[in-house]
Design brief:
Layout: E1 2-6, E2 11-16, E3 19-24, E4 27-32, E5 38-49, E6 52-64, E7 67-72
Parallel strand pairs: 1-7
Antiparallel strand pairs: 1-2, 3-4, 3-5, 5-6, 6-7
Family: Belongs to the ATPase epsilon chain family.
Subcellular location: Endomembrane system
InterPro entries: ATP_synth_F1_dsu/esu (IPR001469), ATP_synth_F1_dsu/esu_N (IPR020546), ATPsynth_dsu/esu_N (IPR036771)
């Protein structure tokens, strides 16, 4: 699936991943291929796309049709 991590300043990551782990407000969760559409808030923590890790300072994620869009406040 296609993953994008975007901050107000720039696009931090754009690429393919088999699994994405996200720091949800109510706990960490994972997205796999063909996941149901979802919009969720994120807290400070690590976004892991396969083996690449990005530490964010909160934000929002949208999953739709095998596309994961993370709108992060900042990448630390």
């Amino acid at each position: 699936m296609h993953v994008e991590i975007i901050t107000p300043d720039k696009k931090v990551f754009s690429g393919e991943a088999d699994i994405v782990t996200l720091p949800g407000t109510n706990g960490s969760f994972q997205i796999l291929k063909d996941h149901a559409p979802i919009v969720s808030t994120l807290t400070k923590g690590d976004v892991i796309a396969d083996k690449q890790t990005f530490t964010i300072d909160g934000g929002v994620v949208e999953v739709l049709q095998n596309k994961v869009l993370v709108l992060a406040e900042a990448v630390l």
